[in-house]
Amino acid sequence: MMGGLIGIALVSLGMVLTPGPNMIYLISRSITQGRRAGLISLMGVMLGFTLYLTATCLGLTAIFALVPAAYTALKLAGAAYLGWLAWKALKPGGGSVFEPRELEPVSPRRLFSMGLVTCLLNPKIAILYLSLLPQFIDPQAGHILLQSLALGSVQVAIGTVVNGLIAISAGTLAAFLASRPLWVRVQRYFMGTVLGGMAIHLAMDRSRAVVAA
Question: For residue range 75-102, what is the model confidence (pLDDT) as tens digits?
Fold first, then answer.
């Protein structure tokens, strides 16, 4: 289990640096309305992560219990998905997430709800959990639901901490990276290498699931 926690922590660190709707919204909100606004928005995003995680864990429990052979299919699908994310990070012409959109100031309640909606309207979150969590679950150890929740909680915790730090320092980072494009490329290549390495490892893994009684 410890190996799974470390593995998902490393992958989560790479994925949280992937530019997407949630990060773009948080950075844009922090730069245009301040750090507090970014952190309030982050709380809404994290609630969305938690809702997706809970639903996914319940679904994975049913899948492993009823169709153990689906384990192999999910591992291959997860490897393909991580490989696709790695390609998106490494391909030429990628932009920087620190090029924010202009947003109108809104109330704290609105900040929270918009963060939640931004997360819930991103279907890639559900795909992420469905493809990522099975890679680190040991079906022979049983307690699939508890394993899924523990692994997912690591991802949520890393996402919260890293996005929180980014929201707090968004303005400074934007100014820093605007004049240092090399750092943007380093971030992309680091993230792409981590995800690509994990994709290759999962694709070559020949272990099969045997659900414990």
Answer: 677 677 777 767 876 777 655 555 555 6
DSSP state of 181: H
Q: How far is CA 28 from the centre of its chain?
A: 19
Return the amino acid letter for 50. T
Q: What is the pLDDT of residue 40?
A: 94
Distance in angstroms (rounded) separating the CA atoms of residues 181 and 186: 9
- Does this model's pTM top 0.85? My answer is no
DSSP 97: T
- Geometric angle at alpha carbon 156, from 3 and 180, rounded to 5°: 95
Cα-Cα-Cα-Cα dihedral sign, residues 21, 25, 28, 30: negative
Other Cβ atoms within 10 Å of 172 Cβ, number? 9
Burial class, 105, CB count within 10 angstroms (exposed 0-12 / middle 13-18 / buried 19+): exposed
